[in-house]
Amino acid sequence: MRLELTINGVPRVFEVAPEALLLDVLRDAAGCKSVKRGCEAGDCGACTVLVDGRPLASCMLLAGQVAGRSITTVEGLGSPDRPHPLMTAMVEAGAVQCGFCIPGVILSAKALLDENPNPTAHDVHEALDGHLCRCTGYVKQIDAVLEAAARLRAGKEGAR
Amino acid sequence: MTKLEGFAHPRSVEEALALLAGSPGDVRPIAGGTGLVPLADRRARVLIDLSRAGLEAVVLEGETLRLGATATLDAVARTRAVAEAGLDALAEAAGAAASRRLRRQITLGGNLVALYPWSDTVPALLALAATVRLRSADGSRAVAIDDFVARHPSKVLRPGELVVEIAVPRAAPHTGSAFLKFARSAVDYTLCDAAAWVRLDGGAIGEARVAVGGLRPLPARLAAAERMLSGSAPDPETLAAAAAAGAAEAEISADFRASVEYRRELCGVLVRRALETAVRRAVGRTP
Amino acid sequence: MSDRREFKVVGRSEPKIDALGMAAGRAAYTDDIELPGMLHAKFLWSPHAHARIVRIDASRARALPGVVCVLTHQDVPRNIHTTAGQGHPEPSPYDTAMLDAKVRYVGDRVAAVAAETRAIAEQALRLIDVEYEVLPAVLDLGDAMKPGAPVIHDEPDCRAVIPVPYDPQRNLAGHVDLQIGDPERAFAAAPVQVEVTCETHYGQHTPIEPHVTICWLDADNRLVIRTSTQVPFHVRRIVAQSCGIPVRRIRVIKPRIGGGFGAKQEVLEDLVAMLALRTGRPVKHEYTRPEEFVSSRTRHPARGRVRLGLARDGAPQAIDLEMLVNTGAYGSHALTVACNCGSKTLPLYPCPNVGFRADSVYTNLPVGGAYRGYGATQAAFPMEVALDIAAEKLGLDPVELRRKIHIREGQGSAVFRALGEGKSGVEQKIGSCKLDECLTRGAEAIGWKEKRGRDRNTRQRLKRGVGMCALMQGSSIPEIDMGAASLKLNDDGSFNLLVGATDLGTGSDTVLAQIAAETLDVPLDHVIVYSSDTDLTPFDVGAYASSTTYLSGEAVRKAAAIVREQILAVAAGMLGLPPGEAAMLRTADRAVHAPDGRSVTYAQVALHALYDADQHQIGTFASHITHASPPPFAAHFAEVEVDTETGFCRVVKYVAAVDCGTAINPKLAEGQTEGAVVNGIGYALTEELLFDQHGRCRNPNFGHYKILTTRDLPELVTILVPSYEPTGPYGAKSVSEISINGPLPAISNAIYDAVGVRLFRSPFTPERILRALREQAGK
Description:
Chain B is α+β, with helices and mostly antiparallel strands. Chain B has 3 domains: 6-51, Uridine Diphospho-n-acetylenolpyruvylglucosamine Reductase, domain 2, CATH 3.30.43.10; 58-169, Uridine Diphospho-n-acetylenolpyruvylglucosamine Reductase, domain 3, CATH 3.30.465; 175-284, CO dehydrogenase flavoprotein, C-terminal domain (Enolase-like, domain 1). In chain B, 38% of the residues lie in helices and 24% in strands. In chain B, α11 packs antiparallel against α12 (236-249). The model of chain B has no long low-confidence stretch (mean pLDDT 94). Chain C is an alpha+beta fold. Chain C has a 7-stranded mixed β-sheet, with helices on both faces. Chains in contact: A-B, A-C, B-C. Chains B and C meet through α13 of B and α19 of C.
């Protein structure tokens, strides 16, 4: 089955099995290793990607469902040379332990900040409730998102 | 292995219905996909992706809140139209399901048609007397939610027919609704949820609807509780007695997570608390 | 000796050296590589709790197009071993074969398939025909040693390889006991007596990355194992043993891994390795989440009874601990978890009369492995609840009781010498202990005085209460475990630090780099760490027993100190100083400074030694074993709110005050504490693996095995109380395990404060709490 997806801004065409999960297409065909396989049941959030800006579990989507849509993974947000403020904040807050859940968390956090640039701690707790983390106890992840939000707001204000 | 060959992405309801009318057994609709994908149900040759067919709008039109079948639970929980319509139980139920991420994928219509024992929105829709609007290539019809649930969606839906909309009457003055969910942790399948709706008439309860879910086999209304409430004063003792009657009546099947006795206790507590909140809201909703 | 030292790199919350790469999604984990021709492996698991395989026929599976190899017990060598990732000779019994003609729990291995795709492999599993003779099963801990119980390990070749009690005919996988003084007589004479029995349950670590392994043969026909493990060197040795190939043919590489918590201190790679050896192709095996829950490893459920005899002022006269531990179908960690129940609880309260007996028994249920806490979790629960009861009987505040009776700096305990891990332990005196300050600061942070007892006698629907506990753990296994480091200087004054020590997300690469950087007087980014590759890095037992900072860290410090001396020697030559005056040189900020003000940078030293004169590689190896296991200490405080109509218990606030010596990296130490606490709260309240009457797990998924999410979080306060452990690198002790042990007793005690009922059986589900409330009301 021919499948067209825009991945991190780049239009791509794949030949995939009709029953392929979006997760497998992203990891294998598209080489986006940041998208992780943790449970294949939509529960852990490690496979989260943005589909037209909406954070969804890529293990719960058949790739064919999202044909033609725009997919964002953390590879599209930044790199170690040019990290997204959410990445920097996660690192500086000590929120990255094993790091396995972090790409998914960053994407959900980005979706939150896109819709609400000034979230409360409660908003952040709620936005991240679909991301299971066993290492950190979440505390520093939440601090990091609030810190990134503040920096992004300041950056925008500085730019005016 | 699977016989799935491909997907269609209709851009309108009409287009979707035409595709479904084509070869009914072969072609299946998919809304969010959270039911279909993990269950690896691959009976279809073609999956009709409904997400682009214009069925996601949530609009308050006069006295009716019209919820498109592919409106996500997240949209239902947060859209202002639902709050404007005064349908607290519905917003609360939609916001209580699963995690925020899953709520952005689960659709109101998809969740209703799959009718899991743990579908949080269904008790709320029962309590709010929703109407399910169905369409096929041949025409349309409406089915009351009680009927849709009791007969089971799979039996009500005719080949080639889709749920396109769920309509809920706007909250009238002197009515109030509430939804409560009990689970082991914040992101969990419900052990018991309760939805209540009351209409006050003078000082008394003119009418009440009470529905529970998560107790299995399916969400259902509690007729004994409703009868006890009708015409009664909305005082704490009456509400507690009605809740107890409802709990005694509720059909509860065994669940490896909790005993029947415990869930019956929960049912009584949650129904009582939902009624208390619904009454408080009804008192507060003046013309 | 001051507890607050001034360091330049140690003690600073340096960002983890690998964090940015992970946050940016760089491919770094086991599954993030593509190998041409890679096969996918799937395992067939037993549907029965206890059965013999009468007949197994894989011919239909082998005939399926795309299937390259199918292995049954008939196709592989029987080299009985233990899967426990422990040092040789292992204290766990040898009772596991790669594949066996018997299955011992639902989820046990039956066969393995390697195929071109995962889907074909899954289909092939369904084509393997197995005829079982179903046997009666032992599904309850208490039934394992009853006369006439089914014998789970009746194979003639199972054995213990060190001289410890082992009696598989009675399903006894491990036993330990000790007696100091005369506990029974002291009990009888004690004015205050308390007896508590607690029960802990099946929980799983749920690392978000499941076990995953890729094996291939390299160009020299050596077997390369790229795997998500905590114990690469034990993997190498035990896979060699199980596959029957020499150690020298194997290389184990640990990439970044997605958490372990002890689940990956287990050697499960042998079957994947055998598929690679037989097919000659790369083979990948990844556990699905349900397989991770049931067929990897779990916590050991246990029943623990504590008896305390105390004087009127609270001084312990007799302490007795009896544990019955469920090790599941195989005995990995059976003995050592049992030993730890005693060794990580009894010394905390010095007492002249101590009794300890623990049995670890086989059952036909999932296999208990190493899980953070490792016996201390199971034993601290009854111990700290018993002390809470004792405090009430004595009319003492529970915090004050702990303050009075806990072990002090300079004190020892006969338990340290008596209890090792399978052998006798090592005598030690406490070199650092700030538990007193932990108690004070923790109590203040939770609001202990104001909140204690406030709601218990009210009639309100939501009642709050506070409870606490005191804890100890250890730092490494003394005289047994070894870690080594190698360090070399590069042209630009940077260093390669090679360690066997295993970073499972804990940040040990960073912590070890900080120790090296501190010793060498360089910034952190001048230490490049490469870890856990059995060909390239020196030996280390791996990440367990809270060893890495205390044990591997000291090996690193030693290596760095030696390299620093080498640098000084070369610098002395460059500066024209006679050898005797080399001692006058000092290092600071990547340079060597002479008393007369001249200096040479490390880069200059490196270029000189690499290219100029007397060319040699400045570098060294260093190894370390520890001679003590200095305990970190902690005081935990929980505030709970109980809904008396539903039994729902919510943790409102949780304070963990921890003395881990010097926190080499405070943010990482906090992170360890926070993660352990949240895991512990989940284990106390919401997590539970449930089994049916056939021994099948009913909830091997995140949907029904509930770990905490962001919306379940209490307000969490972590207080690091510094002390200085003289035997640890820069004063450090461990921090990674201790805090998982607090929530069970602290929450149980808090529930009692709130509503006057005690929960002795975990998890404290709403149903259990409500039932306890009803029973109390009925009295």
